[in-house]
Amino acid sequence: xxxxxxxxxxxxxxxxxxxxxxxxxxxxxxxxxxxxxxxxxxxxxxxxxxxxxxxxxxxxxxxxxxxxxxxxxxxxxxxxxxxxxxxxxxxxxxxxxxxxxxxxxxxxxxxxxxxxxxxxxx
Length: 122
Prior knowledge:
Blueprint: H1 14-25, H2 33-40, H3 44-55, H4 59-77, H5 82-89, H6 94-105, H7 109-116
Helix pairs in contact: 1-2, 2-3, 4-5, 4-7, 5-6
């Protein structure tokens, strides 16, 4: 599986690379389609088209994927409560993070941590 965090290097368009780098650098920031487009100097419609053509996903799907991967890494390596992990990874609440984990991975964050926690993080 390719890391979603590594994908900015694969983006062809420089604007898309810039936006993806910003999301990866701080997944917990309050990224919205409008703020990402404004910061990149393009319209929201153009940014959406760039994402779909280069990545096959919407900006929102990309953001959720980056946040999910960030949460996975935090759960694997740390002992922070799930609510803290949700905040650090940009989900806003443990319930939102739980819904994304359940929908995408088919398990809860707590179950994910139990299965994939590294021994170094214990």
